[in-house]
Amino acid sequence: MLFKIILIFLLVMALIGMIGKLLFPNRLDRLTALRRKAVKAPVCPRCGRYMIGSSGCDCGKG
Length: 62
Known about the structure:
Blueprint: H1 2-23, H2 27-38
């Protein structure tokens, strides 16, 4: 009985996912593209490498 309940739940969740994909295609793609444009990673003005943390770049100028 428990197996049937779990199976029905998973099938309903898959059905909801398919319906959502049909109603809102590429919705997630647009959201991630907007986030990528809004938040750009800081780069060193001298060497162009990505700066991680607040210590600056390894080249010593960033």
